[in-house]
Amino acid sequence: MRTLERVNAKVRDDTPLWLFADQLGTHVHGGEHAHRDVLLIEATSALRRRRYHRQKLHLVLSALRHAERDLGDRATLLRAGNYSEALKDFGRPVLVHEPTSFAAERFVEKLHADGLVADILPTPTFALSRNDFRAWAGDRERFVMEDFYRDQRRRFDVLMEGSSPVGGRWNLDADNREPPPKKQRTLEAPKPYRPRENDIDDQVRRDLDAMDIETVGVDGPRLFAVTPDEAKRALTRFVEQRLPLFGQYEDAIMGDDWAMAHSLLSVPLNLGVLDPLDAVHAAEDACRSGSVPLAAAEGFIRQVLGWREYMWHLYWHFGPRYTQKNELTAHTALPKWWRELDADAVDAQCLQHALAGVRDRGWTHHIQRLMILGSHGLQRGYRPDELTEWFATAFVDGFRWVMPTNVVGMSQHADGGKLATKPYTSGGAYINRMSDHCPDCRFDPKKRVGDDACPFTAGYWAFVHRHRDLLAGNRRTARAVSTMDRLSDLDALLEQEADRDRF
Ligand SMILES: Cc1cc2nc3c(=O)[nH]c(=O)nc-3n(C[C@H](O)[C@H](O)[C@H](O)COP(=O)(O)OP(=O)(O)OC[C@H]3O[C@@H](n4cnc5c(N)ncnc54)[C@H](O)[C@@H]3O)c2cc1C
Ligand code: SF4
Fold first, then answer.
1. For 179-197, how does the pLDDT look when each residue is reduced to its tens digit (9 = 90+)?
2. What is the CA angle 486-489-495, rounded to 5?
3. Residues with Cβ within 8 Å of residue 382, at least 6 apart in sequence
4. What is the β-pairing status of strands 94-97 and 17-19?
5. For the purposes of burial, counting CB atoms within 10 Å of the CB of 197, is it exposed (0-12), middle (13-18) or buried (19 or more)?
6. Does residue 29's CB lie within 6 angstroms of at least one atom of ligand 1?
């Protein structure tokens, strides 16, 4: 990482630091920058650029305004039509950390050329620097998360005993990922940390009402940490009380338990108010002190040090055109009920609950994103570029960098398998095993054809049929094709799914 010694010699030590809304942590503006003035900008153009979830706009504004309050005399918060206007008004060139998207990077480079930005520093909101990732990637064509993750563990010396992983295994997935407990409506995990709203949140709510911005989803209480202090409390509460259940039920879905044992830390991590290595070390310390099982700590560390970093770096590595990839030639426009988050228009219980979670909180947990919402989009051939935009705007933790690899790569397999070795989708049997939704549903997960045919079961076979050549050529999916070939009611199923307009 470039440090201040190497920053352009013309940049004075008192040059102020401009922070984007996803760079608000003490690891960004503290340390060697602790003496600097800080510029924060609320740009209306950024709020109006897309149709965001109402609660996402709230979180971003609340984070910026809390940062202004917490930084006291160091901070200037400017409200302006756009960033360039604000920088001109501010009147002094600023330092800025590399922003987190291609578009913002181009913009900041132009500001640098125009003299409004004095220098651009590396982003400190991820553990591994972009240069180190480039060196790691070399000329690889295919990427395997497990290789990356093991190198991250070694590099940052996390859960290691010398050169070996603690406990002798790198991956404890086999001990995790259980179905939901039977005879319970919720996981009965201690409740997640919930920030206390204050006068700043009240004002944000009033301002958003007055701005008359077009949004999706409903307003609701602030559920996620937006300051370094809140993030610390959220992390401590998670590690002490909820992490023990995290790994075990990481892939389970319960209708009456929206948070399960997930950390709810993606918002503070993506706002840059929580240092990812602090989250990783907290989980490791809890494990080493014996208060958290190794499988739970490893499962969480894999998410933060593995998946999150991997998705960030591959965003840059795959380049700006990756979002346009559509190797499965999926051309169905997103239906209106989906775009409007109209969960009441949906009968399928698993899909209804996931969509209601997006509408009510702008958040669902990972397995709902991947195996319900993403899987539905994949089966129905929704356009990956529209889905990418949808996830980026409808989710409170949806920032530009995080979407393409998660949606185009992981969830829609639209990159032809650069990121994931097989498409992630399933029939109702998997959802029935991993959730408690099916008994309450008007569809039957075992039925492929008929009025009560499960849209995921039938959709799965229709998907396998549509992509039979691709799937037959992949040893991880070839069996699905041979099973499909033996289905006696395949023609009826395909006709039924071609006409299905309600889920
Ligand atoms: C289709 C799809 C869309 C997604 N959209 C987003 C998004 O907009 N923003 C986002 O931060 N994550 C996204 N994810 C990843 C993951 O689902 C969320 O990070 C997670 O559900 C957030 O909840 P949590 O903080 O309780 O996470 P936990 O389940 O507690 O996991 C801990 C942390 O691991 C990190 N993480 C785990 N997996 C990923 C991943 N694949 N990509 C990035 N970070 C990961 C997150 O920072 C998360 O906070 C998406 C995944 C899929 C399949
Ligand atoms: S029956 Fe099918 S649609 Fe209904 S909840 Fe189960 S998997 Fe979802």
1. 999 989 999 999 999 999 9
2. 125
3. 330, 332, 333, 334, 338, 412
4. parallel
5. middle
6. no
How deeply is 213 buried, as exposed, middle or buried, from its count of CB atoms within 10 A (0-12, 13-18, 19+)?
middle
Distance CA 312, CA 299 (A): 19
CATH homologous superfamily for 4-121? HUPs (3.40.50.620)
* Rounded Cα distance, 265 and 274, in Å: 8
192 CB near ligand 1 (under 6 Å): no
**Length of the chain, please?**
503
Query: What are the tokens at 58?
Result: 């709230």
Alpha carbon of 445 to ligand 2 centroid (Å): 5
Distance 366 CA to ligand 1 centre (A): 6
- For the chain, give every domain's residue range: 4-121, 130-318, 324-499
Report the topology of domain 324-499.
DNA Cyclobutane Dipyrimidine Photolyase, subunit A; domain 3 (1.10.579)
- The amino acid at 213: I
Indicate whether residue 255 lines ligand 2 (CB < 6 A).
no
Q: In sequence order, what are the beta bridge partners of 428?
A: none
Residue pointed to by tokens 């920053």:
7
Residue 273 tokens read as: 């108010």
How many C-beta atoms surround the C-beta of residue 65 within 10 A?
A: 20
pLDDT digits (tens, 9 = 90+) for 269-305: 999 999 999 999 999 999 999 999 999 999 999 999 9
Tell if the pTM clears 0.70, that is, is over it: yes
Nearest to 93 by CA among 67, 121, 114: 114
Atom of ligand 2 nearest to the CA of 437: 5
Q: 130-318 architecture in CATH? A: Alpha Horseshoe (1.25)
Please name the residue that has the structure tokens 């503290």: 30
DSSP state of 373: I
